[in-house]
Amino acid sequence: MAEVGYFSIVLALVLSLYGIIAFLMAIRTKNQALLGSAKGAILAVAFLSTVASLILIFFLMSGDYSIKYVYEYTSRDLPGFYRFSAWWAGNSGSLLLWLFLLSWYTVVVAYSRKGKLMAPYASGILLFNSAFFLFVLAFLTNPFERVSGWYPGAIVSAGAGMNPMLQNPGMVFHPVTTYLGYVGFAIPFAYGMTALITKNAGDEWIRITRRWTIVAWLFLSLGNLFGAQWAYMELGWGGYWGWDPVENASLLPWLTGTAFLHSVMIQERKDMLKVWNVVLVTITYVLTLFGTFLVRSGILTSVHAFGSNELGRYFLVFTVFMLAVGIILIVTRSAFLTQGRSFEAFLSKESSFLLNNLVLVGLAFAVFLGTIFPIISEAVQGVKVSVGAPFFNIVSAPLGLALFILMGICPLIAWRKATSKSLLDNFLVPIVLTAVAILDIFLLGIRKPYALAGYGIAVFCISTILREIIQGTWVRQRITGESFLKALFILLIRNRRRHGGYIIHLGMVLMLIAITGSHTYNLDLTKTVKIGETFEIGSYILNYSHLSQRDLGNSRQAVYASLSVYDRHSGRLLGVVEPQKVFYPTSDQPSTEVGLRTTLKEDLYTVLADWQKDGSATFKIFVNPLVAWLWIGGYVLIFGTIFALWPVRGSQSGAHYLRRQDVIEDEVEGVV
């Protein structure tokens, strides 16, 4: 079966090369039979990638340790859930997953009814991407390679086992969702390049890829959220985002992808920023390849990376090649991307969208520069100089706050040109509410500048979002005579894209509140205590009651400490937390499992750092305010994205009603 799996990869590579040539010839000769053959090659590549994936999964689940990949990433005592997730635990398996996703995405594009004239070009570009991954799997990192010295009938001992840090639900879902986001951005890139190749200056490629872009952004958002949750629960350092190079690599395309999602609205509505949108989609796609390069090159130190490998060179060459192709097409075809209109006033929705884009791209550039600075310093000075979290925090904080200010301004500012009267009418109430909120927060004892700014901007954003929705509901009421709740419900579902965006913004604001609180008023303490002793941190008293050992099954053993948590003021028992160290038979180093007490106000985060034979133990204790709102805000963001994507269903008999609703929505937006 290993030979069948490898042959599937080689055959898929041959068919992908045939498909690329067939697409080129079919486009040139307009031969429909050849075009159909090329589409068949795409389907065959997807089928063969599925065969290879199923065979690898079979080996992982059955525990065939004669396969090197199975030996390196599983063991006999590994639960089935994690055996399956070993598919993407290492280089070759994760690349096979990437190929599997990309090949089926390409099938959907090739056989889509939308954009039939553009689909052959886009399919060929996507197939070229698949060919690269197939080349890597066939010649550089074969997932079906046998263990060195293996021969038929040989008995291979139990596997080396999965890294304990990967044996966590967060690392099961984080890589898959991140890859779905990475692969998804290849589709708008392919259509953007198609628009340049065919000299199509219209918005067709944006309309075709709108949902693809949102879906890719949705999955990348989930990937970052799951990754932050994993880091918070598994690494035991008290935080959720450490500006690790690989963390940054997944953040970068999210930032530029967010900018792209906003700027395409201007092109669709005002026929502007055509060149800028193609540049953005190219940068976003190239950054997904850059992230893959970082993970596999070993050029930067990261707990997320697969280690040094010659794969990095090939990914770097491929990344530079695709970037060069994009730049050449943009430069040579820019004359065809004529802009329909120009900016009429600085105070307009168009300008606020552009400023939003500039801030997002500026933030992405700063993060990118900080991430690759060790490479630059080594090339110039011969010494790697790492850039730590303080640099990223100093740069990202003001840019992030500026981004949220624009998030609050944009919904209430008019298209084309805003008048002084409209600005006063729209912003008076939000500004007053913000000023009152900042004063109240100040009187409550919160005096740190970033905290005041963060909470004040959060109130401003929430008030502008609610004002826009409430005023839109009132206008609809006047037009239709509906009740307030009915008008609100129909207003939301009839323009899902717009109001889904508001829900996404609300989720982002909740995340801002969490980030502000956890970074400005967090506490930490390292304390060594004996059994029976107590110590204090923040509003808590902790009593160390005992140290014990337990069997977790699957040959895992845990050493855990029991800490009783009391309220410092009332003395009331709040609960018990049990931080622990888990020992795996396949690893010399134990894994950290934090003891966590979480509320909407704050997290009490406890780590068992060390212990002695007499029972004394060293604890790291963190009090992280408002972290729960980070996860709540993240899932509100996800809900808003799904809400925006969800189709509005209506039967043919209801077409007149739907058209009437569209007219009403136009009137509501015009009045608001």
Question: How would you describe the overall organization of this protein?
Answer:
This protein is α+β, with helices and mostly antiparallel strands. The protein has 20 helices and 10 strands. The strands form 2 sheets. Strands 2, 3, 4, 5, 6 and 7 form a 6-stranded antiparallel β-sheet that branches. A 4-stranded antiparallel β-sheet has the order 1-10-9-8. A hairpin with a 7-residue loop joins strand 6 (about 580-585) and strand 7. Helix 9 (about 205-235) runs antiparallel to helix 10 (about 245-270), helix 14 (about 390-410) runs parallel beside helix 16 (about 450-480) and helix 16 packs across helix 20. The protein is globular and about 85 Å long. The model is unreliable at about 650-670 (pLDDT under 50).
The backbone outline, from C-alpha atoms, is: globular
Tally of helical runs: 20
The structural class is alpha+beta
Beta-strand proportion: 5-15%
Helicity range of the residues?
Answer: 55-70%
In short:
With 672 residues, this protein is α+β, with helices and mostly antiparallel strands. The chain is built from 20 helices and ten strands. The strands form two sheets. Strands 2, 3, 4, 5, 6 and 7 form a six-stranded antiparallel sheet that branches. A four-stranded antiparallel sheet has the order 1-10-9-8.
